[in-house]
Amino acid sequence: MSVLVQVSRKRSLALAGGLFLCALTVGCEKPQPTAPKGDVTSAAATALPAEWEVPIQYRGDWHESLANCANAADLTRMQITVDRVTINGVEGQVKASSISGLQLTVVLKLPIEGQDAQRVFAFTLSPEQDKLTAVQDGPGITRSRCPAKA
Question: Which residues, in sequence order, are bridge partners of residue 69?
């Protein structure tokens, strides 16, 4: 899935070896640090920087219908963790994230046609934090937060 973003003003920041468009936020609030360079071998050194983690209010299991929350095969299922977003069974690693109001914009490293590719995704959280709408491709699918499993 490729993302085309059109706005009157574009700014970009180099993040994690890729180009992160701040067009959806129309002006990033602050530049994000670049990823560490060189040979990084320790687990602590390869961890996602705290400012790039997906904030807790966006994490969870999301489905278009709450009736499908128990259905792991539901095609509208989306799972978001601190450093991963899984949509339709395809898992993307978070390489960078940005928040503007209730909108989360993430750069994901995804396996596409046998190769890794980076894509930008944007989601808007409802004020009640129970619905999440994909907004990068125009009017997108709105998913509901599934209740936490006991």
Answer: none
